[in-house]
Write the structure tokens for this entry.
Amino acid sequence: MLKVEDWAEIRRLHRAEGVPIKEIARRLGVARNTVRAALNSDRPPVFQRAPRGHVADRFEPQMRALLQKSPTMPAPVIAERIGWPYSSAPLRKRLALIRPEYLGIDPVDRVTYEPGEVAQCNLWFPETKVHVGAGQERVLPVLVMTLGFSRHLSAVMIPSRQAGDILSGMWQLIHEIGRVPKTLVWDREAAIGGSGKLTAPAAAFAGTLATRIKLAPPRDPEYKGMVERSNGYLETSFLPGRQFASPADFNQQLQEWLIKANSRTVRSIQGRPADLLEQDYLSMTPLPPVEPPVGLSSRIRLARDYYVRVDTGDYSVDPQVIGRFVDVTASLEEVVVFCDGQFVARHERSWAKQAVVTDPAHAATAARMRQALPDYDALFGVDFDQPTTKAE
């Protein structure tokens, strides 16, 4: 089966770069029909792989000990020192991941970007807590995106740093721009690529948008310095002195402030992001014909308490489908549940921890179902109103 990463790369090469099918097949070492099938599919291939360990795991402590003393020690020398019994490929891959942690200072060059080329993304955690209902206040993540050429800044608060919520926020910001940057730069956020390789949800998102998600090297914040500076700008220029009645209030105040922020002159580009955004826009890729897979989703058998869990909250479902499988999807705004394609619940999503959200109609249905249960005492002829007598 075609991997999600290959499916995403096929769609990016064809839609964003115009590479012919024959050339894509040659580059990736796959059949032309495989390339055609990937281009005809708007959704990523679905497969499950059993988790397994890696042959390099038990040798990593020894590798790190050698790198601590000599960060540039060649891979063949390390293999000899640790008694590596396998082929060199797994060793080199693991060294490529951990060696940067032990290297010295890496000077940063000045980088210029072409219009539409790149957007840097990151999560910002403002210290000011936000009221989320149920008597709670929380520090919530804010997804921040900065376009490389125009320095246009956009941001939105999201309920969690789970992949579905991060991708929902990314899609919202990209959809507001109206076109897709050719490359999205991320640090090694766990939901995006914490292992140094894109997660399946992130790869599916990129493939649907025909873009590329590029992960920054480990411990290298300068690699995405633009969005890091944007986070600092938000921290010092937007946040001070503000109070927020809800996440919606936070996002409303943020959107109003971003209009002013994008109208300021940025010294590094000697221009205003609002004026340069059009050039970025014209060089980006069109939005896809279908929305990318975003949000949280799960499929479970509904238990007797007729609630489903999303993030840390519980939401009621029509109890008439107890015992059957239900499909749960959650956007940033709402939670929807279906059973065999039929709608059985819709709730506004709560951003509070351990929230319990109940539809009164579901509770009323559950009460009627309990009343309809048989009276087992009467069924078996037991009358507790009659006095009992001792056996002689």
